[in-house]
Amino acid sequence: PGLRMNIGVSCDHRVVDGAVAASFLAEVKKLIEQPALMLV
């Protein structure tokens, strides 16, 4: 098995939609897995 890291986010659902938070975490995951994308 590879290395693993748990990432969580807390948000107030009265202000932030859960889909937005999920999209944010997906983007963070992509950048962690492919750090060269941060240079673009």
* Low-confidence runs: none
Strand/helix succession: H
Number of strands: 0
Mean pLDDT: 90
Instruction: Round the Cα radius of gyration to an integer and report it.
Output: 13 Å
Instruction: Give the helix proportion (percent range).
Output: 40-55%
Number of helices: 1
Question: What's the end-to-end separation, in Å?
Answer: 30 Å
What's the number of structural domains?
A: 1
Helix and strand content put the structural class at mainly alpha
What would the principal axes of the Cα set say about the shape?
flat
Strand content: under 5%
Largest sheet: none
Main traits of this protein?
40 residues; mainly alpha; 1 helix
Explain what this protein looks like in three dimensions:
By secondary structure, the chain is mostly helical. The chain has one domain. It has one helix and no strands. It has one helix at 18-33. The termini are far apart. The relative contact order is 0.14.
Question: TL;DR of this structure?
Answer:
The chain is mainly α and 40 residues long.
Task: Write the topology of this structure.
Elements: H1 18-33
